[in-house]
């Protein structure tokens, strides 16, 4: 979130300094471990309508963002295929109902396609006849998150942003600036105690010639499982969702479940090589929704992206940028002006004042 905000501001002509306790790769961030799925429809089964709306908006924004970055980023918009084993049929019905409940009639009509038999085999030939039914969510996509982090770092440098890697920022020593934008994810927890981490584990494997053409979701009794094909035969299998801030290595149980799930989708995964097992925690607010919070003076905090960072970041960034202009221009000066401005936005619930720093 911080890199995207910084890059957008720098290329709009603002002077930007970025501070990150990690390095330019982003390997210390939740953003590094993520799968980079852009799945507003599938996520609608689990999340509030706001997430689907921000996600659909963001899907449309990603191509223009990526086209302006100085390095290539793998981006695909070839849909997601939701599959289930026969024993989990009841779960498929529940999933579809929950998804539809959070989508408009129009989106339901164009964004959810039921496939079966030969039509399913033609849509995803690599699956053969292993599944008899599936849901295709044709508008969904994915990107290569690690390429994106690198490309944004390069884009920041290109636009002459000051880059301070390896610098930890704490609340008592905020950098001096016209505006400080705090996008520290779970690192902001000391100043935003409502934030909590939700542990997620993923496995990266590599196998040649398996031929899956789009991300698959396998309905699973415990958590939404996906297999996302990246470039060069790399597949990201994820993700567990555990109420814990433990960031220790992937457990045997999770590894067994994730790998068995992949193997049950395609036996060809049996010959894949395990490249990486990784854990990170999703920065999550109590209502599982993102927030853009203003302290009444010169700090804006963007957090709570939870399991949807890539899905919603472009739209969130656009909303935050819309607030920065009047803030810096001195049009939003107090809570009344902020409130009046907020009510005119498309998603007023995104904006709040930061509770620990009362205005005044
Ligand atoms: C297993 C897993 C799978 C996921 N899959 C997906 C997915 O498929 N699609 C999707 O949309 N989202 C996914 N996500 C969610 C996504 O990764 C997060 O929503 C997103 O990374 C949050 O972005 P952020 O910038 O707020 O936090 P982060 O990505 O954690 O970045 C925070 C940055 O702040 C820096 N920082 C922290 N504290 C300090 C400090 N004190 N001083 C200086 N710098 C600091 C960190 O080094 C880091 O660079 C997944 C997450 C996980 C864990």
Feature tags:
eight-stranded mixed sheet, four-stranded mixed sheet, 360 residues, FAD/NAD-bd_sf, 11 helices, FAD/NAD(P)-binding domain, oxidoreductase, FAD-dep_OxRdtase
Mean pLDDT: 94
**Unreliable segments of 5+ consecutive residues:** none
Helix proportion:
25-40%
Number of helices: 11
Largest sheet data: 8 strands, mixed
Q: Please report which band the strand proportion falls in: under 5%, 5-15%, 15-25%, 25-35%, 35-45% or over 45%.
A: 15-25%
The set of bound ligands, ions and cofactors reads: flavin-adenine dinucleotide
Compute the CA-based radius of gyration: 21 Å
* CA distance, first residue to last residue: 28 Å
User: Can you write the helix and strand succession as a string?
Assistant: HEHEHHEEHHEHEEHEEEEEEHEEEHHE
Helix vs. strand class:
alpha+beta
CATH-defined architecture: 3-Layer(bba) Sandwich
Query: Would you state the CATH class?
Result: Alpha Beta
Mass-distribution shape:
globular
Biggest sheet strand line-up: 5-6-4-11-12-13-10-14
What is the domain tally? 1
List how many beta strands DSSP finds.
Answer: 17
* CATH fold-level assignment: FAD/NAD(P)-binding domain
